[in-house]
Amino acid sequence: MPKTITVISDTHCNRWEDVHPKMRSFVSKSDMAVHCGDIVKKDVVDGFLAAAKNGIIVHGNSDPVELRNSLPYIETIKVEEIEIGIIHPAWGGPEFPPEELFNDFETKPDVILFGHTHEPLNCYIQGTLFVNPGQGYKSFMVDGTMAVLTIDGPNVKAEIITVEKGKS
Questions:
Q1: Cα–Cα distance, 88 to 56 (Å, whole number)
Q2: How far is 137 from 135, CA to CA, in rounded Å?
Q3: What are the φ and ψ backbone dihedral angles of 25, each rounded to 5 degrees?
Q4: Which is nearest to 115 in space by CA: 48, 55, 62, 38?
Q5: Helix (H) or strand (E) segment spanning residue 50
Q6: Tens of pLDDT, residue by residue, the chain (168 residues)
Q7: CA dihedral over 86, 90, 95, 96, signed as positive or negative
């Protein structure tokens, strides 16, 4: 039976209840949920982990020191036959070529889930599927987005989902 993984990032909220309700619903219904950093407050961490059947969080560059100290910078997990690397490049700064993230992992994962750029991405680079769910809230001209991965044995598919449209 296929496994679903909800992926969110860059929520920048004070409370779990402030995270978009559609995202909260996906987190609670999927087999696994991943937050790729820039959570900002412990209440969001606690709410995410309580809502998820199996929750994984890495810290981001905007997270306060207490969250950075309590959450990993990088995680690597295996789901079915797929190795997944999870990161929020805490080195921050401007946009970067996604393949630079290979340097943060000991071995090349099948999938890299990452945040930071606030730009949704769903593409293969050098045989690895790179997925950035985008930002977890709508802003002036930018949609609030998330990603859903479906894993079935050796097969993985990612979809970017718009949860709330920004102004156009």
A1: 13
A2: 6
A3: -65, -45
A4: 38
A5: helix 42-51
A6: 899 999 999 999 999 999 999 999 999 999 999 999 999 999 999 999 999 999 999 999 999 999 999 999 999 999 999 999 999 987 666 678 999 999 999 999 999 999 998 899 999 999 999 999 999 999 888 899 999 999 999 999 999 999 999 876
A7: negative
Paired with 125 in beta bridges are: 128
Residue with tokens 């990993």: 72
Neighbours of 45 (CB within 10 A): 20
Tokens 């890495």 correspond to: 58
* pTM over cut 0.90: yes
Token pair, residue 69, equals 């100290």
Domains of the chain: 3-164 (3.60.21.10)
Residue 34's Cα: distance from chain center in Å?
5
How far is it, in rounded angstroms, from Cα 91 to Cα 42?
Answer: 21
d(CA 83, CA 64): 29
Q: Is residue 101 within 8 Å of residue 111, measured between CB atoms?
A: no
Secondary structure (3-state) at 57 = strand
